[in-house]
């Protein structure tokens, strides 16, 4: 069977592609390379350079490769920047998803795994997020991810569409030194690049009501995340039933201080992070419960914090000047 991976040249998407190959599922990739890297796509995987806004191209790709289902990761993912670029965010994340679903309906592709986000929850008033926690996104990015879930839900009411959406927080690490996080807004790339420039990484607030005073969040290894997407595709392909939404969470979380300590230990670069004032709106702790995903998708944290840091550091060193900094 063949599955289309939208955004398959990106950091997460490329890991999903590799996981599909390891599961003996044939992937095909469509990506406009706005943030993806073509070399992230293995040579033996068909690659279509283009935007999901081009409905004819998407439809032709589905037909040419006899696609059975779609893992939809493409989108504009920068929550902070989305506040300054709401129209762009909605176009890339909502209009493109509508176009994709229209093409799928036309061709008869009836299975989709949607890469959603924990940004749909906004700043919840609980320290352990479940799928029943009310959604209240606080950025255009979070809003578009929630609307994307609604689109799948409503399309499934009107046509034969089997789907699930995966929500998650911070994705880190690398499954291969050739694949690295290309985002200039994520914690690991920011800290690694500051260390390379001889600058001191920063912690925003150390007086939170947490064990070490710094914010606690869910950090997931990208390879674990990729496996969950592939397992969701396999269940849908086999005719199994899935919940409309799953959280991929650790259930425990890691503090910013713990991350800094692990980075110092792994890199061998001695530094003491500079502590700055709290950022407005940063909750002390947000961690997701992943029990439902564990039950239905075999979700589990297979990598330790050290694994996450060490693999990301190796990929950063291998990337050299290609690293976003």
UniProtKB/TrEMBL annotation:
It catalyses: UDP-alpha-D-glucose = UDP-alpha-D-galactose. Coiled coil: none annotated. Residues 3-249 form the NAD-dependent epimerase/dehydratase domain. Its cofactor is NAD(+). It is an enzyme of class 5 (isomerase). The keyword NAD applies. This is UDP-glucose 4-epimerase. It comes from Nocardioides taihuensis. The lineage of its organism: Bacteria, Bacillati, Actinomycetota, Actinomycetes, Propionibacteriales. The gene is galE.
